[in-house]
Amino acid sequence: MSLYHEAAALLTGPSTHGGSLKSRVFSNKDLKSPPAQVYALALETCKWSSVLKEVVENAELLKHERKLTPILSILLVHDHLLAKGGIALPASHGLRQSIDRHKARLTSEFTKARIRRKCPTIETFRDLIEAEYAGPVQHPRWIRVNAIKSTLDAQLETTFKGFEVVPSITQVMTAPRKKKVLCLDGHIPNLIAVPPSVLDFTKTEAYKKGEIILQDKASCFPAYLLDPRPEDGDIIDACSAPGNKTTHLAGILSERGFARGQTIHAFEKDRNRAKTLQKMIKIAGSDAKTVVHPAEDFLRADPKAEEYAHVGALLLDPSCSGSGIVGRDDVPELCLPEALASKNKPGNGKSGNKKRKRAEGEEEMKPAPAMMVDDDGQETVVSSEKDLQQRIEALAAFQLQIVLHAFEFPNAKKVTYSTCSVHKGENEGVTIRALGSEVARRRGWRVFRREEQVRGMWEWDVRGEVEGCEGDKEVAEGCVRAFRDDGRGTMGFFVVMFVRDGTVDGEKKQVEEDEEGPYVRDQQGRIVRDENGIPTLKATGRKAVEVDDTEGDVRFGSGSEGEGPFVRDGDGRIVRGPDGMPTLKKGADEESEDESEDDWSGFDD
After folding, report:
1. What is the CA radius of gyration of the chain?
2. Does residue 220 have an active-site annotation?
3. pLDDT by residue (tens digit) across 154-203?
4. pTM beyond 0.85
5. How many Å separate Cα 289 from the centre of its chain?
6. Annotated binding site
7. 284 vs 250: CA distance, rounded Å
8. Annotated binding site for S-adenosyl-L-methionine
9. What are the pLDDT digits (tens) for 581-590?
10. Residue 242: which region, alpha, beta or left (left: phi > 0; alpha: psi -120 to 50)?
11. Which residue, 49, 194, 406, 478, is most buried by CB atoms nearer than 10 A?
12. Residues 46, 420, 469, 479: which is the catalytic one?
């Protein structure tokens, strides 16, 4: 089957591969032609289809070439008129000959179409078509600088050299198609917005080396809101592929410094998607700190397993309806030409109103049923509001199961839950049901309040819907939303963070009953400390704070290095009593010395 037949089948036949045009092409293993070539031909033909329809009809191509179908005619005419190499078929091929026989008339009609649109050159014609495709306000291209391999300043001096920095995202979204402008995002660190067509960044050295990653702004919210830190312990990304959020977690931690042994666990139950995940993690340079669990379902992971004993934070981005994704409707409306009936000739006795006989192999076009395509590319027929609601409820039940499973990890203190959906049922609905669950009440999970969130998320003013949160304004304010086409340049998105302090119910009782406190002691009852004075936690067997592998300034408590509230000797070491506790400056009184060691909260050194 030729390139043109494959593109025609893709555009007009029933889809057996769900998702956007791009995902359908690149996930189709039956294609004989290069997927990139099929995708480019299909997309560009759709963009030009209103013009091509006009050209084919005015040139009466289908009247003279009865074996051509309408879809094949515009695919072939597109390449004849607009492709650099022309039609990708030998000169002797029947399809190419059916176009070559009419090339003068086709070229003439194309020129007339250009002039009717007041375009003096082919280039201005191309710009007009691209502008119509993008719309008056274009969605920006978001690019995250990968902090593991580069810096924002380094990229501004290289990849983005020659770009004009503008203060607002609106100026990027309304800029001319090829104008080199960029906006430094004010909410997410290391994030840049540029016009979508200004440059193919996938061909830049920075992209190939993993120094920059193409990621929508809203997709950056979960890792940034989770705010991973060295003291959080290990981190789980429960639904990782393709790896944008996984590498974002690693990028944030690389700037702060990974604690000794700190690991990101990346789960992906689909084996093929796991290969994509592993490739991305390697290119981004986070493979040394990330353990990929290919073909493993997060829901089957045992929270009490030794492997996850140190997990303190989880990022959950499960399958959803994908209703907020920009580019899901990435194909413009396809305009097909109508075949012209043969005109009556004197004496032939044929009616001029007779319909053209359907070409061999051409199937009658029937209206396609409404489809809902989730973010994994799975299609569901939606013929009514009831069907849509049932699908949303099914997804929400699965999403809730993921959240409740995350709540069970013994040492977890932070969990983000996100979707690229705009439906309340998948967002605020799941949040409220999670808060009302038995495990949330038992372990003390609550929504992280807006005023507690990192600055960029606290300042983001699009919050959850109060109605969806059953009237709870505090919970709604803690939820973060984004809407496509609202002038902020993001996809539709939702994220919320759940937190707990670890002193609820059975955990609190256990700590209170342990008179020796949370730290390991020697045979004399003294707290065991390392050379930095850091004690070892009983619960995890790890240091209360890991120091050796942490980059940058590290502070325990308040005050600057070499100072603090404790007495030091001539070598600057903290002076400790027989029980290993430090001595307070200014004559520590008896009350201070007798304080319970359970209250130890770190040193200044």
Report:
1. 31
2. no
3. 999 999 999 999 999 999 998 887 899 999 999 999 999 999 888 999 99
4. no
5. 20
6. 239-245, 268, 297, 317
7. 9
8. 239-245, 268, 297, 317
9. 566 665 444 4
10. alpha
11. 406
12. 420
